[in-house]
Amino acid sequence: MTDKTILPSKLLWIDLEMTGLNPQKDLILEVAAVITDFEFKILASYETRINQDKEKVEELLNANSWYAEQVPENKDIFLKVADNTKNSDQVENDLVELINNNFEGELAILAGNSIHCDRSFIQYYWPQLDKLLHYRMLDVSSWKLVMNSKFSVEFPKNSNHRAFDDIQASISELKYYLEWFNNNNQSPKIDTK
Known about the structure:
By secondary structure, this protein is α/β, with parallel strands linked by helices. 45% of the residues lie in helices and 20% in strands.
């Protein structure tokens, strides 16, 4: 078993695009993974769409009004079954190989925005991948909550809800918050009274 007390040297940024938020009902449509060090230098990356049953995807997307309101152009992208897409098992194997090749036995810290949602899909669909992940996660949306509420700092984020672009935005967002602390000579102060 891997020693969970070892300090991580890298982060595994993952973003999934799904038909909805319920892993028992919804399907993963696209995945991107980026491995960085803690200076956010990209060490490796991976992205693919996942070959799913077109009729089932269309049914689920039609039932999700969010797609029609937020990113209607993505619906057409996800309905196209391209020859270069992989099935879910192949994608899990690719991601397991990516971790094995880059983390040298270290459990991977999952990072991203609202990463708990992505983790629930990983646990449901990709259990072999989940075994390689640390129980701790770096959720940028937690930073967003603190930065917005305590410091009135907002990151100007434009999301097109495509996996690789969303990872890049999440990395940029965390860098933005860390740079804000450096530039403003701030350290989080909490009133303990």
